[in-house]
Amino acid sequence: MNEKISIRLFDGFEIRKGDRLILENLANTRKTKLFVAYLLVNRDRPITHQELFELLWSGEDYANPATALRTLLYRFRSMIDKEKADALSGAIISHRGTYQWNKNLDVSIDALDFQALAEAGINPTISDVRRKDYLEKAIGMYRGTLLPDFSSEPWLIAKSATYRDMYIEAVMAYVDILKTEGANSKIVQVCESALELAGTSEILQLEAQIAKLKIANPDASMRESVMAYYNDVHELSIKLQNETDRMQTEMQEESIEQQAFLCDYRTFKEIYSMQRRMQSRSKATIFLGLVYVRCDEVNSEDPLYAEKMMNDIVGCCQRLLRVGDAICRKADSEIAILFPAESYEDAVGVLERLKAAVKERTDEETVVVYRVRPLKSGRE
User: What is 5-105's CATH number?
Assistant: First the structure.
C-alpha cells in the first residue's frame, strides 16, 4: 500500500510519507530547501533559471547558473530516491530554461488545502451546514507563518499575508454562523485563538467582547454604543479593504518588465533619496555605480553612430541588471545605476560584468571605467 505524501508549509517545512518524516536532509541544505520551497509556493507558474539564480545566489558570480541549478535538482532527486518516495519522483519539471512544481502530483500541501477549504467555506451560495464544515477544517489547518525559516524573504511576505487575511476572513465567516446558533462561548474561544495565532484584528476583538457581554447577561439588550461602534468598525473595514484592492489594481502595471528600471536623471535622484531613507530602516546595502564609456571610433556615414551605440549599451545594461535596480543615462558617456548587494566585493562584481558586456558590444579601443560606492543612510 502506497502511503500518502503530505507537505507542511505552515509554521515549518516538513515532507511526510504517511506518519513518517522524510527528506530530513533538506534542513541541512538551505539552498536546496529554498529551491524546493520557492517552486512549491509558486507552483502555478514556470520559474526561469534567471529568477531562481537571483533568488539563490544574489550577488554571487557563477560562470554557469544552469549547472548550479541542476546540482540542486540532482540533490533533491537523490534524497527522493534514498527515501523511496516514488510519489515525488516527478515533483519538479524542467522545460526550456524553466523549472516548475508538478501541479498534477498526488501530494497533499497544507497551504493549498487550507485555501481550497477557506474559499469553499466563505462561499455564501452553499448551505450553512456545508460552509461550517469547510470553515472548521480550514481554521484547524491554519498554523501561522508560512515557511518561517524564510519569513524575511520579500517574495514570501506577500504570500504569507494573503493566507493570514484569508484565515481572518474564514474565522469571521465562521463566527457569523455561530452567531445564528447563539454559540457565544464558542465565538469567544474561536476569536481569541485566532487573535493569538494571526495577530491583531479589531473586528475579532469586538466579536469576542460582544459574545462575553451576552454570556454575562443573556437577557440584557446590548448597549447601543457598543453595537454602534462595532457596526462602524465593520463597515469601515470592508470599505478600506475594497479601497485597498482598488488602489492596488489602479497603480499596478499591467505587466512588469523583467529588467532594471530605466529612467531620466531627475527620477533617478528621487529614487536615490528614497533608497537612502529606506536603507536607514533595513539591513540592505544599496550601491551607486557610475560607468563611463569612451569610444574614439567615428562613423562618417552615420553622424548619430555614437548616440546609437550608447543607447544600445544602456539597453544591454538594463537587461543585465535585476528587476528593481535603477539605471539612467546621466550624461553623453555616463551611465548611473542603483542596486543592492551583500558586500562591496559583490557590488564590484556587478560592475565588472557590465564592463565585460559593454566591451563585447564595442570595439577593442573603447574605454570603459567605473566607480562604485555604498549609499550613506538618511541618518548620515
Answer: 1.10.10.10
